Structure formats: C-alpha cells, structure tokens
Fold these 2 entries.
Entry 1:
Amino acid sequence: MEEKKDQRDQWEKAYRNNEDFFGEEPSELALSVIGTLEEEGAKSILEMGCGQGRDTFFFARKGFDVHALDYSAEGIERIRAKAEEDGLELGLAVHDVRDPLPFPDESFDAVYSHMLLTMELTEEEIGYVLQECLRVLRPGGLNIYSVRNDHDPHYGQFLHVGEDMYQNPMGFVVHFFPEEKVRRLSEGYLLEGIKEFEDTSPPFVKKLYEVVLRKPER
Ligand SMILES: C[S@@+](CC[C@H](N)C(=O)[O-])C[C@H]1O[C@@H](n2cnc3c(N)ncnc32)[C@H](O)[C@@H]1O
C-alpha cells in the first residue's frame, strides 16, 4: 500500500483546472429524486459534497432553499461567483463533513449528497456523517445519497488503499459499497430504497446505489 495524496488538494487541483469538472447538467441522481422531494413538500435542502454545484443550481432554480457545503474552497468559490452572476441566494460553506455539521438540530427537510460518502472516508467516519445528518433533519425528513457500488467497473482495480477503497490513476480514492454496507449504515433511519443506476458524467461511466433514508417521526 503506497502513500495516498491528500484528497482535498486533489479536488482543489481538479476544480482549479476545470470550471465544470462533472459538467454543467444536473446529475442522474438529482433528476431521479427531484419528483420525490417535490411530492414530500420539502423546502430546505442541505447538499453535502456539492463540488462545483451542478446539482446545487438545479435545486435552487427549482425553488428549494439550498445550503451547500464542500471541503474544496475552489468548488465553493466557483458556486459563489456563479450564484452572484445569476442572482441566486444560496447558503455556502467550506466544511469537512468529518467535523460536526454547523447547523442546529432539525434544520432541514432533506439532506442530499451525490458521490460524497463514496470518497476517502472510513466506514466509521461515514457512520458519524450519517448520524450528524439525522440530527439536522426534521422528523420525517429524507436523507438521499449515492455511493459507487461493487458492480462498478473500477471496483477492485488499481491501488488498494483500505477496506473497499481503491485509488484510481487520476489519484482519487474511491470507497465502493456492497449493498450490505448500505444496510449496516442505515442505523436510526427507515431504509426506504436502494436502487442501482449509472452516472454518465465525465470522465467515465460509474455504477452507483441511490439510497433513500427517512428520519422516523417522533
Ligand atoms: C465525486 S465529487 C462529487 C461532486 C458533486 N456532488 C457532483 O456530483 O458534481 C465528491 C465531492 O466531495 C467532496 N469531499 C470529499 N471529501 C469530503 C469531506 N470530507 N468533506 C467535505 N467534502 C468532501 C470533494 O471535494 C468533491 O467535491
């Protein structure tokens, strides 16, 4: 096992070199869940690991009150500049999700993250993040996330750097999820769905699980 590069620097560099690393269009996950969020009557969304904001802008333009965070200052700065140009109001923060979420209990109707929990986070860290999400969600609120799964063409490829974690030739560490891991990590939530889908955004096709969790009503 070789030394890993710091992943935050890796994202800063990627976003500095490319204004739209994942493209400008909303992700397949955002398109898949927008109907559910609308039907649920959700108004406020916390988006974690928002990158350069392809989904942030999609939700904000649909009228949701969006708070978005990422540990990449480059990503957040890009969103801030674009939001100003478009006259959109967003809550933005540079924040590492391994630290406590900077919001009071029961602040949001929904929490959303596309391909964040599938980054270089241990299972223990992911468990912590999911419990923090539970705290900031209102009772009955949804936590919708996606993770790359063990059917992904990159699973088991390249450099093995930890349990279910592999570093690809671009230098990014990815944590791949067997279905069992999703179930294990749902503690405290009602698990409403696990569905496989593909993300076709550049630079390659990825296989993921869409996971829908609900905070139980009191
Ligand atoms: C695969 S990218 C997805 C970006 C965005 N959700 C999208 O689909 O366009 C993962 C994002 O998670 C962010 N990230 C990784 N680890 C993080 C952490 N510990 N805290 C906050 N953000 C993190 C990265 O900076 C990156 O923007």
Entry 2:
Amino acid sequence: MDYVKLGRTNLNVSVAGLGCGGNSKLGLWRGKDKAHAVSLVRRALELGVNFIDTANSYGTEEAVGEGIKAVTRDDVVISTKYHPAWDGEIHSNETIIAGLNESLQRLNLEYVDIFHLHGVHPKYYSYVMEDVVPALRKEQDKGKFRYLGITELATVDPGHEVLMRAADEGCFDVFMVAFHLMHQTARRALFPLTQDRGIGTLIMFAVRTLFSEPGRLKRDVDELVASGQLPSTLKSASNPLEFLLHPNGADSVIDACYRYARHTDGADVVLFGTSSLEHLESNLASIAKPALPETDVTKIENLFQHLEGVGLELPDPSKRI
Ligand SMILES: NC(=O)c1ccc[n+]([C@@H]2O[C@H](COP(=O)([O-])OP(=O)(O)OC[C@H]3O[C@@H](n4cnc5c(N)ncnc54)[C@H](OP(=O)(O)O)[C@@H]3O)[C@@H](O)[C@H]2O)c1
C-alpha cells in the first residue's frame, strides 16, 4: 500500500480509502449483516488501508467503530459527514452539531480526523459559509474533529462550482470530489487549485453504478453516441472500453477505473465501496498497480475529457436488498 500526505493536513493516508456509503454501504444495503460489515473494515485494515470514510446518513458508523477496535486510534484516519441541507430542508447549526455528536457516539470515538459538510448544494453555499462554518469552528476548537472538509453534490454540481469557491476560503482542508474516467472535469478545473492551496482530495464515484452494473456502460455510451457527444465507433462495441483490456493494460473495466483515478495527478485518496471481501481484495490490488499505459490514458482523455456529469446519480434506496 502506498501512503500520501493529505494536502496541508498532518495526516498520512493510504491511497485507497474504504468508502462506507454508495450503493453497497459495507454490505448493509446488499443483504449482509453488521458482522460482515465489521469484517470488511477489519480486512481493509489488515491490507494496509488506514483511511475510512463514513457519514451520519450511511448507517455504517457503528460497524466502522466496531471494526477499528482492532487497531490503535492513531493508526486510522476516520472521516464522517453531515448534510447542512437535504431534500430542500436547511439544517440548523444545532442539528448539525447534534449530528456530529451522534457520529462520535456511534463510532465510539472522542474525535474524528475529518468532519465534512456533506453534499453542499450551490444554493446553500452562503448559508454554509456564513452560519455553519463559524459554529463548527467552535466544535473543532473543543477537539471533536481535527480538519474540516466539504463534499460536492455531484448530481446538481458536476462543474464543481461549490469546491472551486471553497478552495479560496482557507477553512476547508479536504475536498471530496466526483471523478472518474468519463467525468474528468476536476482534472482541469479543480486539481490545479487543490494542489496549489494544499487541499487534500478524496475521490468518489471512481466506479459506482456506471462501471459495475452489467449493461449500464453500453447503454450510457450508446445514448452519448446518439446525442453526438461520443464518436459512433464506440456504439457497436459490446464493451465500449474493450480497448483498455490487453496484456500490458487493464484486466477489467473496474481495474482500469481504479488505476486511472489512483494515478491522476491531484487525486490523493481513491475511495472504493463494496459489500464483498473478494471485491475489496481485487480493488486494493488494482489501486496498488502501476498507472495504465500512457497510450491508454491519452485515449481515455481524448475520448472523454469533454464529458460532464455522466453516471453521478445518488444511491437508489429502492435497489436496497
Ligand atoms: N459525499 C458524497 O456525497 C459521496 C457520494 C458518493 C460516494 N461517496 C463516498 O465514496 C465512496 C466510494 O463510492 P462508491 O461507494 O460509489 O464506490 P465505487 O468504488 O465508485 O463503486 C462501488 C460499486 O461498484 C461495485 N464494485 C466495486 N468493486 C467491484 C468489483 N471488483 N467487481 C464488481 N463490482 C464492483 C460495488 O458493488 P459490490 O458491493 O458488489 O462490490 C459498488 O456498488 C462511498 O462509499 C462514500 O464513502 C460520497
């Protein structure tokens, strides 16, 4: 496992971070129980992962708290979150701070390393900056979290408006950014800013549904070809990313996705979410591999760099098993 310094923080983090949300939620959305979720956390730790991302809304904080009992507190970096607004409802400072306190209780921790404002909609940005951040600074001074982070609401903000504004506020040490090989906008718009300001980046959506649900990639690519956003040469292919799979290249589309994210300049931690021990191990193996061949990276960037917002939907609770 490789480790990097997360921006200007003092955190030394694994380049692979266990994501406890998404569609799998450590298996809790895939028909698995808490003991299984705990075993995923423990296996990730055994394999060198020291970065774990959860949230008040995921339902996985208790399993994370249980799983990390296997290591000493200083050997793990915990990130959690609370929504400053959701479903059109603004959350008061009292509600957000109560949410932070609940997270600490469920995780059984005195502090988290990173507390994020979760899924900030551009229309609530001023509220966050004027009201919420000053109140949270007081909680930070009390020692409840070490660094403040912010995550974008990728479904409504694929152009990274919120994070581009937040880059210059000085109060956010960590950003969670939507980035994958068919949604690369952060590469040009955001990563130069985060690198210049010393803001650590956590990559979400590296695989998600677009690259993991059978048939989904072909369907989306066919639609992009039909709307003139991708060349017709991609339409006939049963696997539009077949060109990445060869003896010197990727083993699978998922392998290609994690390696592309991992080796993009400006990406610090690639979050990966899963319900399966087998996927956990194969994804960590992918993240540990070298970059894809340069010619393949060039093809990925020439073909897809103009796309924005592909495959960024929220988890669908109706698909919970
Ligand atoms: N702040 C936010 O609003 C936000 C939004 C999105 C994500 N996140 C964070 O980022 C993390 C990562 O995002 P994500 O959970 O969508 O993860 P991801 O790594 O992009 O995608 C994971 C999905 O792909 C499947 N998958 C993974 N490895 C596979 C493999 N080897 N073969 C086949 N299918 C595979 C998983 O299903 P299986 O269970 O079958 O493995 C899972 O449903 C989240 O857990 C969360 O911590 C945050």
